[in-house]
Structure formats: structure tokens, C-alpha cells
Amino acid sequence: MNRVHGLHLIVLTSLCCVALSAGEGDRRSVLWRGRSIAVEDAADSVLVSPSGNFSCGFYKVATNAYTLAVWFTASADATVAWTANRDTPVNGVGSRAELRKDGSLVLQDYDGRVVWSTNTSGTPADRAQLLDTGNLVVSDAAGNRLWQSFDWPTDTLLPEQPVTRYRQLVSAAARGSPYSGYYKFYFDSSNILNLMYDGPEISSNYWPDPFKKWWDNNRTAFNSSRHGSFDRRGVFTASDQLQFNASDMGDGGVMRRLTLDYDGNLRLYSLDAAAGRWHVTWVAVQRQCDVHGLCGRYGICTYSQGPTCSCPDGYVPHDASDWSKGCRRTFDVRCGEDVAFAEMRHTDYWGFDLNYTAGISFDTCRRLCLVDCRCEAFGYRQGTGECYPKISLWNGRVMSIPYQTIYLKFPTGAKNLNPSLLHFDGHTCTMDERDATVSSSYLHGRRNTINFIYFYSFLAVVFVVEAIFVVVGYLFVFRADSVAAGRVGDEGYSLVFSHFRRFTYDELSDATCGFRDEIAKGGTGSVYKGVLEDGRSIAVKRLDEMTQADEVFRSELSVIGRINHMNLVRIWGFCSEHPHRLLVSEFVENGSLDRALFDGDDGEDNTGVVLPWRSRYKIAVGVAKALAYLHHECLEWIVHCDVKPENILLDGDFEPKAPAESPARPAAAPDPAEEARSASSPSPSAADA
Ligand SMILES: *[C@@H]1O[C@H](CO)[C@@H](O)[C@H](O)[C@H]1NC(C)=O
Ligand SMILES: *[C@@H]1O[C@H](CO)[C@@H](O)[C@H](O)[C@H]1NC(C)=O
Ligand SMILES: *[C@@H]1O[C@H](CO)[C@@H](O)[C@H](O)[C@H]1NC(C)=O
Ligand SMILES: *[C@@H]1O[C@H](CO)[C@@H](O)[C@H](O)[C@H]1NC(C)=O
Ligand SMILES: *[C@@H]1O[C@H](CO)[C@@H](O)[C@H](O)[C@H]1NC(C)=O
Ligand SMILES: *[C@@H]1O[C@H](CO)[C@@H](O)[C@H](O)[C@H]1NC(C)=O
């Protein structure tokens, strides 16, 4: 399902790109001194290289997060070749990139804060220009280069762009993510080009083969110039004598890139310009499981329809959505306790050997691990008698070498444990094994048939996308506002907001006994208490007659529906049946903070709550956590513009349910400037009394 979904997005973007490049013809490639491009101008503000092969501008990485990037115009998913601010995306409104009068090209966020700069202030810079090579260059009137993006690679090299002593590639954190990940392609201190996993807990090189000396890997450590690059024909050469050729070598008209992918593998790609797709024409690590850090501590990388992570029996995944966090034991191994060993054949955990001995018996090896409390497992190779006691278990993988076996230490007291069997839970670490091998179409030169296949699958996908559009459009346009929408309409919405539900007006009317129990009244509507059929207490906010377009209401709901934090009021659903609009949220017992603090001052009924300092502290921390979440942790950053005691609700334990944004933004129409700043507002709540 997810895959299919991704495909649609790619095709959609490709349609847009085709439309763009066709309609715009000869776009400008130069940004003159004193000029700027703004994020809102989207298509108008893109710099395009003279041949049209590269574009530079604001690149959307999340609903409200943009980077300044250079991308391949002709690739279907607008593959990014370079990013200025990969770890600090800017807001979708009010951000701009400007070649300032002082000579520096800067990227500033909506509030004017400079998040990135070429640091060329004080130079006579005259223009920023996107060249045909994909290089973004700041130069003076005479054409002298003062700064160029080729000196600041991110995860991709273009033809003639070098990896050097000072410039390394750093992978992305995940597929499609702009953020830096843990993999690096760099020259080490002995002048050798390496691939390294540089994670929070461990770091190690995995390419070239770390067990071999440099001469066995056909490299040289003598040349300290530390320079490597590839040319348009697809021939890579480096000062350490690393040399490789693309499988379609020689074709100078093909666009190429060398990318350190998020899965830690280094791949050379060629673009099939007609279909907008990339083909792998060389790959550094043939077996993806040989890449380090993929499955985390204790995790084991296996192949089942592509590389897959799993845990040994008795271990469970730490975080099933992020396998780099690995597995954890469901038992303890205490020093001095009785332990036994469980056997895992054809398996190895690379590295972290306490020491290495060859030619010893199995029992000797076993005893070495038994007597040393630091030893968690040992690897033993029958025949050669090689013994590897392990101090820590990382980089696990199944091996093709049949005689390699890992023996895991576990307490004999641990019942029901059968670690001799790997526990496969079938979780795929979103890696694509097909990517790991060189595309056969290029190897065998059978491009014509392949192209036809792409062409037809492209057509098929376009057809499917259109069908989906028609169906979804139908649901939205014809069913959304009709009471009779019933089940079909619900499903339409549930496609959009996964665990977030649409309620019917009757349902909410029943739940609130005909909107009898009003608990608060605010500028944008009244709030009623109710109980759902499943017993959950809810607060239902009736938004006043609408000031806002239906699409705005929905797009805001889609943001709100995804917010989920302990200290934010959870929104469970909504109802939109003309003329009614209601929001359903969890009911928070203790009312708002202002009542707890200033209680009695305004002559309203005294609830008798007096807050001890401990609770006050807890509330302050809770509110801070909620704000931190909105500002940094959710993908679509949200600026809360109305934090005040009235908007902070207290639950039964006086945990704050903080900034339940007051005048429910979906209802109110605040002044545009404010709206620009707040990407969207969180949980409209029962609070705004
Ligand atoms: C500009 O200077 C800042 C501060 O020294 C530095 O962090 C940043 O990497 C520099 N940017 C470029 C593109 O050189
Ligand atoms: C090194 O080069 C030799 C001869 O070309 C080749 O047989 C060998 O496989 C290469 N070794 C590696 C590790 O690439
Ligand atoms: C070192 O590498 C550079 C770049 O690849 C090359 O031009 C140079 O001739 C090499 N030097 C030696 C001594 O091999
Ligand atoms: C790559 O191609 C060049 C010719 O351009 C050739 O000299 C070289 O041996 C090839 N290298 C490999 C690794 O095949
Ligand atoms: C632009 O791309 C086309 C198609 O891939 C290629 O033929 C052409 O040589 C490219 N132009 C430049 C300047 O790279
Ligand atoms: C390996 O480690 C064990 C336990 O720490 C020690 O007894 C043994 O002598 C070591 N062997 C070598 C060759 O260092």
C-alpha cells in the first residue's frame, strides 16, 4: 500500500515537472545582486540552468518545511543534488533567498533569521548563477568564482565535483528526508576513500573490506592529494587508485550522480531522461547486509525479499519503526549466574571482538567467553578453529559462509527460550534490494524492451492515479457535506486522516444530550460536554457560523489530526454537515489553568483548587514540552501564538494539557500576518472560556 502510494506521488510530481519545463521555456539562471527569491513564488522563483537540466529554488520537504536546493529537472521525483540548509528547513511562508548588497547569498527564515549563508559578505559578488553542471556559483562581475555549491556536497556528487580532504558525503537520515544521517563517504587519515557508519553509539568502516589491508583492496595510501571524482562518461578515479566505471560507461549525454544513499550504500546512477527514472550503474557494497549499523544492537540483517532486520529469539525490537535502534533482551545476564549458549548458524556479528585466536578447540573458545563477564557471545569457525569472543553485538547479518556460527550467552534460568532459532518478524527495513545490484538493463544493453515496459507501467500508473482522483474527488465534492454520506464518506475521510474520525451531527447531538451541558463559551463558539457510545468523555466545540472556506477547514484538520502529544489536547474527530461544524476532543477534567490560579477573583463559582508548587512546576514543564513538540518535533512546525492560562487545561492529575490553542484557529480568521507565522494551530479545545 505504501509503495503504491509513493509511486503516485512520483508520477504526480513528474506530471508537474513536464508541465513546468514545457511552459517556461528559457528560464532565468541568474540571481543578480540585491535580488531575492521567495518561497511563496514557487514556480516563478526557480533558477534554471541554461540547458534546463538543473533547477534551483525552494524545495518542499514537508507541508511547511522547505530547503534551498538544486535538483534534476527531468527526474520524475525531482531528485535533489545539493541542499543548502539540509538540517534547518525554513518555513513555507515568508522565507527568502537573497543575494545581498554586501555580497553574500543568504537564506532567511520567515522571521528574518539567517539560517544559511555563503559567507561572502565584503566581496564584490555580482550574481549567483546555476550552471549547466548543476553547480550554483556566486561570482563577481568579471566572472571570478567567490563561492560554489560544488565545494559543499551533501549526499551527492555530480560529474567533475570532487570528494576531497575537506569535503565528504553524508547520507540522508531516511528515504526522502533532507536531514543528515549517519553514513559517510570520506578520505580517512591514511588517504583511503571509505564508507563509514558514524552512529550515536558506535562507528566503523565497512567499505572497502575492513579485514583486508589497503593493498589487498587495490588501493594506495601514499598519495596524500586526497581527491576523487567521476566524469560525464561515468569513469571514477581517485588518488587512492580507487577506480570504477559505470555499466553504461562512455555515454556522455546521460545525466549521472553518485549518491551515498540513506541505507549506507554508495551508488552511481544514470537518468533515463524520457521516463525520468534512475538506474543504478555501479554499487559499492554488493550485499546490502554488509553495510554497518542497519539493524542496530543485536539486530540481524537477513534477505527475504530484500534486506530485512530481525531479532534473535528472546530479543524484541526496540522501536519497530526504526531498526537502527536494534533489539533488546527480554532477560538479564548477571555476572556469576549460570549461563548457557544458544547457537545461531550462518550468522555473524561484525566487530567488537575481545580478542582473536585461531586454531583452538570449541571448548577452549567457549570457556574464554564463559569466564569473562564482558563477553556476550562468541563466534566460532569450525575447521579453522577461529574464535571471536564478542564484547558487544552489532552489525549482525546472515553469512554465506556455512561454518560461521554465533553462540549467544543466556542465563539457564531464562525459561521458554530457544535462541537457536532466529525470530523473524518479517519487518523490512525499507531498503530496496533491487537497488543494491546494478540494473540489468544497462548491463545487457536491452534498453528498448525495458523502455517499453516502463512506458506501459507509466501509463498504467497514470491511469490508476486518475481513477483514484476521480473517486476521491467524487467523495469530497459530492459526499462531504451530505448527511447521507454515511459509511462511504467516512471511509473517504479515513483515507486522509488515519486514526482521526468523522462524526455525524446526530451522533454528537446524542452524545451531548442535545447540546445541553455547556462547559465554556468563547469567541468562536461554545463547548459542550458529552459521552461517546464507547464511553469516552468528550468535549464538543460548536464553531460559530463559518467564516472560513471548507478547504481551509479541512487542511487544518489534517494537520491537527496528526498532532499527538501527552501534553496536547487530543482531537478525536470532527463533524462537517452544513451548516454545522464541530470539533471533538478529549474531555479534560480540571478545567483551565486560569481558573486554578485566579480562582474566585472574578466572582465565579469557586472550585476550591489551590495549586501546590509541585503541581505548578509540573505544569510549567508540561507546557514547555508541548511547545517544544510543536516547534521542533512534529514534522509540520507549528507556532503557537496564544499561550495563556485560559488555554491550558488541567487533567485529573494536574498534568497540563497545554496550549490547547484558544480561538480554535480552524474557526477564527486571525489577521494574515499572524496566520503566516503560525503554520497552523494545535488542538482547538474546550478551554477558551
Ligand atoms: C558560514 O559561516 C558559518 C559560521 O562560521 C558556518 O557555520 C557555515 O558553515 C558557513 N557556510 C558556508 C556555506 O561556508
Ligand atoms: C584487485 O585487482 C585484482 C586484479 O585486477 C582483482 O583480481 C581483485 O579482485 C581486486 N581486488 C579487489 C578487492 O577489488
Ligand atoms: C596523486 O593523485 C592525483 C590525483 O588523482 C594525481 O594527479 C597525482 O599524479 C598522484 N600522485 C602520485 C605521486 O601518484
Ligand atoms: C574503466 O574504463 C577505462 C577506460 O576508460 C579502463 O582503462 C579501465 O580499466 C576501466 N576500469 C575498470 C575498473 O573496469
Ligand atoms: C541535458 O540533458 C540532456 C538529456 O539528458 C543531455 O543530452 C544534455 O547533454 C544535457 N546538457 C548538459 C549541458 O548537460
Ligand atoms: C583473550 O582474552 C581472554 C580473556 O580476556 C584471555 O584469557 C586470553 O589470554 C586472550 N587471548 C589472547 C591471545 O590475547
Q: Can you characterise this structure?
A:
The chain is α+β, with helices and mostly antiparallel strands. The protein folds into four domains: 28-149, Bulb-type lectin domain (Agglutinin, subunit A, Orthogonal Prism), CATH 2.90.10.10; 153-293, Agglutinin, subunit A (Orthogonal Prism), CATH 2.90.10; 295-428, Hepatocyte Growth Factor; 501-680, Transferase(Phosphotransferase), domain 1 (Orthogonal Bundle), CATH 1.10.510. Helix content is 20%, strand content 30%. The protein is built from eleven helices and 44 strands. The strands form eleven sheets. A six-stranded mixed sheet has the order 37-41-42-40-39-38, with helices on both faces. Strands 3, 4, 5, 6 and 7 form a five-stranded antiparallel sheet that branches. It has a five-stranded mixed sheet with strand order 31-34-26-27-36, with no helix packed on it. Helix 1 (2-24) crosses helix 5 and helix 5 packs across helix 6 (486-496). Mean pLDDT is 75; it is low at 1-26, 419-498, 600-607 and 658-689. One 2-acetamido-2-deoxy-beta-D-glucopyranose (NAG) binds at residues 235, 243-245.
Q: What is this structure's SSE topology?
A:
Layout: H1 2-24, E1 30-32, E2 36-38, E3 47-48, E4 54-62, E5 65-72, E6 80-83, E7 90-91, E8 96-99, E9 105-108, E10 114-117, E11 125-130, E12 136-140, E13 145-148, E14 156-157, E15 163-164, E16 169-172, E17 180-187, E18 193-198, E19 203-207, E20 227-230, E21 235-238, E22 243-245, E23 256-260, E24 266-272, E25 277-283, E26 300-303, E27 307-312, E28 315-317, E29 327-329, E30 339-345, E31 347-349, H2 362-371, E32 377-381, E33 386-390, E34 396-398, E35 404-411, E36 422-428, H3 433-436, H4 440-444, H5 447-479, H6 486-496, E37 501-502, H7 505-511, E38 518-522, E39 525-531, E40 537-543, H8 550-562, E41 571-577, E42 580-586, H9 593-598, H10 613-633, E43 649-650, E44 656-657, H11 672-677
Helix pairs in contact: 1-5, 5-6
This protein binds 2-acetamido-2-deoxy-beta-D-glucopyranose (6 copies).
One 2-acetamido-2-deoxy-beta-D-glucopyranose binds next to strand 22.
Enzyme class: transferase
Subcellular location: Membrane
EC number: 2.7.11.1
